Amino acid sequence: MSTKWTKEYRREYNIKYWKKWRLKNRPYIKKVCIICGKDFIQTGNYQKRCNKCNILICQYCKKKFVPKKKDYKHKFCSKKCYSNSIKGIYPVNLKGKRGTRPQKRKISKCNVCGKDFEHIVSRNRKYCSRECWNKRNPPILFYCIECKKEFWTYKTHRTSKNVFCSQRCANGFNQRGSKCKFWKGGKTKKNKILRCRAKYKRWRNKVFKRDNYTCQKCETKSGQGKKIYLHAHHIKDFAKYPKLRYQIENGITLCNKCHYLKHSHKFQNK
Question: DSSP E strands: which ranges in the chain?
Answer without folding.
Answer: 30-32, 39-41, 56-57, 64-65, 105-109, 116-120, 140-143, 150-153, 230-234, 251-255
